[in-house]
Amino acid sequence: MDSLMGDASRGALRLPRSSELVEDADEEVFLLYSDLQRNVHSDAADFRGLGYVDSRTDILTVELEFQLPRQSNSAADLSPPSSTGRRRRNKKGQKADRKVVNILLAQDKTALRSRKGDTGSVLWKASVDFAQLVLREIHANPVDSFLDPSILKTQHVVELGAGTGLLAIALSPFVGRYTVTDIKDLVPLLRKNMTLNFDGWPDCLDPTPGSNVFVEEVDWLVLHSTAAAQRLRLVAFEPIDLLLVVDCVYHPSLLPALVETIDCLATPERTVVLVVVELRADDVIREFLEMWLQRPGWEIWRVGGGLLDKPYVMWSGFRMQIK
């Protein structure tokens, strides 16, 4: 595998120096799971199960906490909704500023059990951990954040398979436009969660929090079964700068449609795709990578820097213009 000689940027994404080019799915899966096994603890407290946060609660309060830079007030001006400040002491007894973001999320726990294939009706840990990562990076040291805040603020972010919509609520204050998508059955839940966290949504006016958030239906299976010439009418978005795919690689039957959707939505030489995967079934992850690598023009990097702890991997994809 090739590694970066130095930090590289594409759009708002800054690839850390330790990022590696992915060229072979078998090799990538072997490396990922070998490393995962070395870091697995036998303690039962480390067991994550399927990755739900709490599938038995109708309304969750999600608390995201991160440290603020003491020398700057800029981070406080970029806070997501429902946030409060705290001051704690670090190990040396010095005071440290922290920001706590409280997000209310409705779940449809009945749908999880009764609607076949519906996993997005409850919150999953991967979304919480990724939101925590982005907020921590942007607030703690925006100069070195793997997502450049100054560029991100101008960009159109689209999220696939958004489920409860946590990431849209947490990250929309940092982007130009955030389009959150999922299947038709989950659109009402997404809308409900936007109204729980953004006063007046969807009619709130700029620059009110939530005014840049839009909920749209995107069904990968429908798109996959639609003739290529007709697909753009299903996803008539403004050009996408950053496409987020967080914890969507889990069922082999959905993989062809997911890869087709990524390929369809990505504008060559513009769209950066960021895929976050929890390492569950290795055969499913191998199949996803094989399908993605087979698409013409794609360059895929494993994002280095130890940004997310195990059991996650984060890949960045960028499609070149095919001449």
Protein model, in words:
This protein is of the alpha/beta class. Helices cover 28% and strands 24% of the residues. The protein has helices at residues 25-39, 74-77, 109-114, 125-140, 149-152, 166-171, 187-197, 220-225, 255-265, 282-294, and strands at 8-10, 13-15, 20-22, 59-67, 83-89, 95-106, 156-160, 177-182, 213-217, 242-246, 272-278, 298-302, 312-319. The protein has an eight-stranded mixed sheet with strand order 3-12-13-11-10-7-8-9, sandwiched between helices. Mean pLDDT is 87; it is low at 42-47, 72-77 and 90-94. Helix 1 runs antiparallel to helix 10 and helix 9 packs parallel to helix 10. The protein is globular. The longest helix is centred in the middle third of the chain and has 16 residues, at 125-140. The protein has a single domain (8-57, 108-319), classed as Vaccinia Virus protein VP39 (Rossmann fold, 3-Layer(aba) Sandwich). The relative contact order is 0.16. It contains ten helices and 13 strands.
Estimated radius of gyration: 19 Å
Portion of residues within helices = 25-40%
Globally, the shape reads: globular
The structural domain count equals 1
Distance between the termini: 25 Å
CATH architecture annotation: 3-Layer(aba) Sandwich
Name the beta content range: 15-25%
Can you tell me the CATH superfamily?
Answer: Vaccinia Virus protein VP39
Lateral arrangement of strands in the main beta sheet: 3-12-13-11-10-7-8-9
Order of helices and strands: EEEHEHEEHHHEHEHEHEHEHEE
Name of the level-1 CATH class: Alpha Beta
- Major sheet: 8 strands, mixed
Low-confidence stretches: 42-47, 72-77, 90-94
**CATH topology category name:** Rossmann fold
The overall pLDDT average reads 87
Structural class, from secondary structure content? alpha/beta
| DSSP strand tally | 13
- Helix count, DSSP H or I runs of 4 or more residues: 10
